[in-house]
Amino acid sequence: MIPPRRSSRRSPLRSEGTLTPDTTPTVLQFRVWLRGLSPMVWRRVQVPATMTLREFHGVLQVAMGWEGIHLYQFVVHTVRYGSWELTAESPDIGLDALKLRTGSRLLYEYDLNVPWDHEVRLEERTAAKPQTHYPCCIGGACTCPPEDSGGPEAWIRQEDEAFGLGLDEDLASALEFIKDISDTRSFAILDDPDRADEFRELLSRIDRRNTLFGRTFKRRQANERLRRDEHLTLMHQQM
User: What is the tens place of the pLDDT at every residue in 87-109?
Assistant: First the structure.
């Protein structure tokens, strides 16, 4: 946690006519979103300006919902920083050392086999608020696709298939089961082994769709993980 803001009262002028510097820590606010997906998967995070790119990688993993099991890299001003296997520059460089301006954008790539490209934009610099834990996530929508789901194009195909004709057929079958149970006021149809197996398979398919697309982004959960410093584990995990 960044220490509370100190008193802003001015100190006496020095002989050279300058004031003592304000020691309030600076916080950087970024908006991050996944390219190529609709609806947009995005997050808004606030991090200390002294945080390194490696630590920022861990924050993005937690906030977005990734698991930190693949290589990564940032592209900042055409310079690559990331996993040592990529022969990129070391990510142990402070964000403040990158001299980012408000509105500056950088690219964050995760899973370099089939990259998930994240657009990262610096929205503002602000003073740290007392009693606020940093890093933190202050906004976002939609959940990330599961790991190893093949990149944006493959994921969109899975979405199309999950909500295509097969879904209509499964919903029609589910309604048929419900109607039979309602008409007979009995679950006796499930005494038939074939019908019971058919019903179990139907529920399994529906559950798989729910696992893929039924999740919602939970900001409170992400912040709980950040408070537990899970980003400091994920920033090394792929290694």
Answer: 999 999 999 999 999 999 999 99
Q: pTM score, two decimals?
A: 0.75
**Residues 6+ positions from 195 with CB-CB distance below 8 Å:** 189
In degrees and rounded to multiples of 5, residue 3 shows phi and psi of -60, 150
Residue predicted with more confidence, 168 or 38: 38
> Model confidence at 125, in pLDDT bands (50, 70, 90)?
very high
Domain 26-143+216-237 belongs in CATH node 3.30.930.10: no
